């Protein structure tokens, strides 16, 4: 089989992501409802940079420069005490590798289980398991996040109901409705509630 040949310009444009050119992720850019505001999105996700993502995803990683099929590659950047609230992925597996610092991971409907990851420790969280993470170190730290398993859109993300309640208390019920229309759900851990997939 003959190999493919690419110029340096092709490789630079399509295959290389440079940390110095990073851009924080947002959510909802590809939806008709429009993006979620930065202040609201901070309540749902850690500051992070999309490195690679599928071409036609409706996920928060739409600005990923490098397009690859079947998985998403993100780098989260958190100050001490910063992280994400309890959430789960309906169909995808989220794999975390600590690049720097110390990270507390909690899982279970109330975050009742806990483990600490240090540099290069890795935690692959199965689908439908509620999880959260937090930088418990003393300096800004970086976490590699890989999402694999098929669906890579916001309908795959389900938060605990209290996350939705916090959005209502800080930003109002209309804001929560907008976030839901973009695709996020707030039923993680509720018995008898099934996720909807579109």
Outline of this structure?
With 198 residues, this protein is an alpha+beta fold. Helix content is 16%, strand content 30%.
Verbal overview:
With 198 residues, this protein is of the alpha+beta class. It has a single domain, classed as Jelly Rolls (Sandwich), CATH 2.60.120.10. The chain has four helices and eleven strands, in the order H-H-E-E-E-E-E-E-E-E-E-E-E-H-H. Strands 2-1-3-10-5-8 form a six-stranded mixed β-sheet, with no helix packed on it. A five-stranded antiparallel β-sheet has the order 7-6-9-4-11. Strand 6 and strand 7 (113-117) form a beta hairpin. The longest helix has 11 residues, at 161-171. The chain is globular, with a radius of gyration of 17 Å. Residues 194-198 have low confidence and may be disordered.
Short key terms for the protein model shown above:
4 helices; alpha+beta; disordered C terminus; 198 residues; Jelly Rolls
Query: Can you identify the CATH superfamily?
Result: Jelly Rolls
The strand line-up of the biggest sheet is 2-1-3-10-5-8
CATH architecture: Sandwich
pLDDT averaged residue by residue = 89
CATH topology title: Jelly Rolls
